[in-house]
Design a protein that fits this description.
Elements lengths: L3 E6 L2 E6 L10 H16 L5 E6 L3 E3 L4 H4 L6 H19 L5 E5 L2 E3 L1 H7 L3 E5 L4 E2 L13 H9 L1 H10 L2 E2 L1 H7 L4 E3 L4 H13 L3 H13 L5 H16 L2 H12 L16
Parallel strand pairs: 2-3, 3-5, 4-6, 5-7, 6-8, 7-10
Antiparallel strand pairs: 1-2, 8-9
Helix pairs in contact: 1-3, 4-5, 5-6, 9-10
Length: 266
């Protein structure tokens, strides 16, 4: 049984953590599968959105401590695991299509970090959330400190990270950590609905918006606007803009080309 699955239906792909007996904990093999599947999604122009979810009663309980624990005794081995973890999570964050986390079960530590690298997060109303690293004295080395502070602010992040306390889906929504809270049984359906909605938009524009949100928000406003200027001009010359104008004038729904920038394009 594969520890992570990639399922595709139409323009939407699903990346499914498939270790329900381990609460979908992520080990080294799981990381490599995630990396491979994200690369496949980027290479397939027919896929226009990606839903990330977990099988069973957990979304993801974090890193697999059974595999990770022996690495705590070797700085080299621990660094190798964390470096690869961050490479793969960065790869998912930089995925060319919109990514939606469908959080329908327990989400702790590295599982919470996994939601941080998705563009949109839908969570069930009775799901248990928390960082949990501090509960056992572990350093949140998978990007949790830096991303969480950027998402919810320094003071809220300080309490979540240092206390290890769990928080509710309604708190996560209030903080801006998630986009929607729905009945848990409806999480995956709602995520797929959102993915279908985004799939109908310009794939090229979605990629450019993701890039700007990821790369430019930490820059001064004037600098960020200057960086966006050539991208906006290039997009205005694209077939997607032409399709949008044609549909606007005809009062019809635009049909955008199945086209995204190639990997490495700037």
């Amino acid at each position: 049984m594969r520890k992570v699955l990639l399922e595709t239906e139409g323009t939407v792909a699903r990346l499914v953590l498939n270790r329900p007996d381990k609460l979908n904990a992520i080990d080294a093999e799981s990381l490599e599968l995630i990396a491979d599947y994200v690369a496949r999604v980027n290479a397939d122009p027919a896929i226009r959105a990606l839903v990330v979810t977990g099988r069973g009663r957990a979304f993801c309980a974090g890193g697999d401590l059974a595999e990770l624990a022996p690495r705590f005794g070797s700085a080299t081995e621990f660094a190798g695991f964390i470096d690869r973890w961050n490479e793969v999570f960065n790869q998912l964050e930089e995925c060319q299509v919109p990514t939606i986390a469908a959080v329908g079960g327990t989400t702790f530590a590295g599982g919470l970090e996994l939601t941080h690298v998705c563009d949109v997060v839908v969570v069930g109303d009775d799901v248990v959330l928390g960082d949990q690293h501090a509960t056992y004295g572990f350093y949140p080395a998978g990007g949790g400190i830096q991303r969480l502070a950027r998402l919810i602010g320094r003071r809220r992040a300080a309490w979540v990270l240092m206390s290890g306390e769990r928080f509710t889906p309604s708190q996560a929504l209030e903080w801006g950590l998630v986009n929607e809270v729905v009945p848990t049984a409806q999480v995956l359906d709602r995520a797929l609905e959102m993915a279908a909605h985004l799939s109908a938009r310009s794939a090229l524009l979605n990629t450019e918006i993701k890039r700007a949100l990821r790369d430019d928000l930490t820059k001064p406003l004037e600098s960020a606007m200057a960086i966006e200027r050539p991208r906006a001009i290039a997009y205005a010359m694209s077939a997607d803009t032409s399709a949008g104008l044609e549909a606007f004038n005809a009062r019809t729904t635009p049909q955008f080309p199945d086209r995204r920038p190639r990997e490495g394009d700037q």
